[in-house]
Every structure is written in C-alpha cells, then in structure tokens.
Amino acid sequence: MQRLHARYPFLEAARESVATEAVDLATVVEQDRAVVDRARQRVITALEAGSTGDPHRDARIELLSYPVARVLVSMVGERVLVRKYARAEAATAYERFTADMADTTELKSVESTGLALEDLLAEFDLRDAVRESGGDGYRIDVGTYLPLAADLWDDEWRLVNQPLDAGDVPVDEDDLLTLLREAIRSRIEDGLPFDVPETIATGLEDDAAEIREVLADLDLTQDIDTVVPDLFPPCMKALLDQIQKGEHLSHHSRFAITAFLTSIGMTTDEIVDLYRVNSSFGEEMTRYQTDHIRGDSSPTEYSAPSCATMQSYGDCVNKDDLCERIPHPMAYYEQRIDDADDEELEDWRENETDDQSASGD
C-alpha cells in the first residue's frame, strides 16, 4: 500500500489498492485495534477540530482507518456528522495538496507522496473542463463550476457575481484549488451514510457510542439564526406550547427551552417577551436567567440538553421517526432546517414584527 494512498485515501487508486489487497473489514475491525482507534480519532477530530488529526506513522493503518471511519459515520447516521466529517477530510486533503504544490524541492523520495494539480484534475475528470488562460489564471466550464461552488456560502462564489465569458468562469489558482477541495468533499460525502453489515457493526458499537456522545455534547448550531417553531423538535415544540398557554414550567424544562432558544439566535429581549404570558413571569428574574444561560452574566454559555438528559427529566415527549436517529435537539433542528424548502423557512420573529407594525405598535 503506497504512502500516497494513505495520505489521500479518497483517491480511486487508494480504493483499488485496498480491494487488490483483499482486505476484509470485518477481520480488520476484529483483529486490528490500531486501525479502529485511528478511525475513531478521524471522526471525533473531524467533529471537534474540523480536521482528521495527525496521521498514523504506519501507512497501512492510516489507509485502512479511512473506510472504517466511513463505517463509523454510517453507524451513527447523523446528517450533521456526515457533513462535518466530509468537510474535515476535504480540509485535511486541501492542506496537504496545497503544501505539495508549493513544494519546489527537486530531491524527491523514490516513492512520491505528493499530488500535482494535473493529478487532481485527472482524478475528477476535469482536464477538459479546466483550461489555463495565461499567468496564474484558469477558465472553468460553467456547467462544471456550478456544482463545485454550490456549497460555498460567500457571495463571491455566486454565478451572478462571476464575469461569465463564453460559457466559462475565470478563476485564479487559489479559487481553483478551493473548488477541487469541494470536489473531494462531495466524493467523500457521496453514499454516506450506508447500511453497515452486522458482522462489521458488532465490533464497532462502543466506538460509535463514543462518537454519539461527542456529537451530543457539541454546540451544533453555530450558524443557525432562524426561528421556525414548526421545525422544532417535538420536545421543544411542547415546551414552547406550554409557555404560550401560560402554563408553569419546572426549572429543568425552563432551562431546556431557554437554552434552545438562545442557541438558535433569539435575543434576551425576545425570550423575555415570550415568557410574559406565563403566570409565573417575573421580568427581572427571566432576564437574569436568560443572560446567565447565554453566558452574558456567567463564564459559561450553556447549550440545550441532549436527548438523553431530556429523557431523564421527562421532557422527551411526542417522539417521531427522526427522534429515533438523533442524539440532540439541536441536531434535530439543524436537520429539519437543512431539509426544508426556502418557503418553509419563514422566521417567526419576522411575523411578529409584521403583526406589530400592522397593529400600530
């Protein structure tokens, strides 16, 4: 097994290398703990740091840890994990191939571990779609550009902001390498999660459980600032309904819904206003508690409780099919947001503002 394949396990040649060696993953999982440990590290480091961690010094262990990591991601089966894992693998690959391309050292080892730009273009069948245009510039066919740039959020990547010319999008070398990173991410994400045979899954249950625990403890909503109650997990929808009916909430229930609402972008003022209809409402205390949970008046920013904690307090109610596969209310909400059409993503706060304007408030 070549060191190049261990360094870039997403390559078709790496997959073929594993197939040629007739590696049986069930046997690897059962007999080679070093591979499983490295696979688990890949996934957990992807969640916690956005990379895949330090590579193992043994090329065989490093290469085999990649398919086992994909098995672990599939066993957990959470979309947020799939996305974060694929991005981390792609980010690690990007860091490596940009370093390879910047290396001008002529003294190479007999067995090359680096990738050139031409290698990556060939890997993703982009040689015909990408052409040099003089200097450090390139031109990429618009039909190829669009899917590669689809997951890049900055406005600069939108086609309307590109100087389209004769069906081509001009890009510099840095932009092209970013698009190649997206090609890698897309390949890694493709097919995940998949059904894992029981013969393999049995030996990885403890490792998958550890990943689920890490996933449950993470703040999964850094980029969410959308309040759509119809998409809330059933537990939070039920607590919100109790508030709006003016019912009394226990301390743990009040903490759970308040932490959830702060995590999805609601301000202290908005949350205080929400509680006003509650019979036990006290503005000063509600504001203090909300600021404390948010971290404004305490050293800790609290996240919403995990599903396991909600269950222990009796707040896990009205479970649906998605609840069975989700370890955290925030993961549930993020997936519902991801799956929703644009017309479903009407922020509740905007409706409140419109209602107040219409009433002259």
Automatic annotation (TrEMBL):
Biological processes per GO annotation: DNA replication initiation; DNA replication, synthesis of primer
Database matches in Pfam families: DNA_primase_lrg (PF04104), DNA_primase_lrg_N (PF26466)
Coiled coil spans: none
Residue ranges constituting the DNA primase large subunit C-terminal domain according to the UniProt record: 226-327
Molecular-function GO term, any one: DNA-directed RNA polymerase activity
Acidic residues composition-biased segments: 339-355
Region (Disordered): 334-361
InterPro entries noted in UniProt: DNA_primase_C (IPR058560), DNA_primase_lsu_euk/arc (IPR007238), DNA_primase_lsu_PriL (IPR023642)
Entry function: Regulatory subunit of DNA primase, an RNA polymerase that catalyzes the synthesis of short RNA molecules used as primers for DNA polymerase during DNA replication. Stabilizes and modulates the activity of the small subunit, increasing the rate of DNA synthesis, and conferring RNA synthesis capability. The DNA polymerase activity may enable DNA primase to also catalyze primer extension after primer synthesis. May also play a role in DNA repair.
Complexes and interactors: Heterodimer of a small subunit (PriS) and a large subunit (PriL).
HAMAP family per record: DNA_primase_lrg_arc
UniProt-recorded name of the protein: DNA primase large subunit PriL
Natural source organism: Natrinema altunense
Protein encoded by which gene: priL
